[in-house]
Design brief:
Metal Binding Protein, Guanine Nucleotide Exchange Factor, Chain A; 11 strands
Amino acid sequence: MQAIDGRCSCGSIQYHYPAPALQVVACHCGLCRRMTGAALSVYVVVKARALNFTRGQDRLKPYAVTNDTTRHFCADCGTPIFNQNAQKYAGLAMLYLGTVTGHEQLSPAMALYCESRLPWLQLPESCQQFQQAPERPAK
């Protein structure tokens, strides 16, 4: 993907990122599981300053997940759009894969917190796996 476009479930929020993803990351930590209600989270890592909301930026609502991490979601339908961690991953936004148009073309190159991975969940052999998280999971 040369550029990334996406939206929430109801279409109130739409975004555009003018470049390829820095990284696609799968996270197996318990916090991500609780935030999504899923077995893992998959994020498309982009530079926050280049992420442009083409519709509905005023519908984005923040939720402080931890002292460092904020989740941004659609106030209308509840779709999680992206996370930011200003301390550990300054300048980056982690878009939720499911919001990306054409997300089926992307797959994780890196998996974090594999120590918490559910035993029945398999990743591609090409996916670099970390028991915890490296300092900065983007190129």
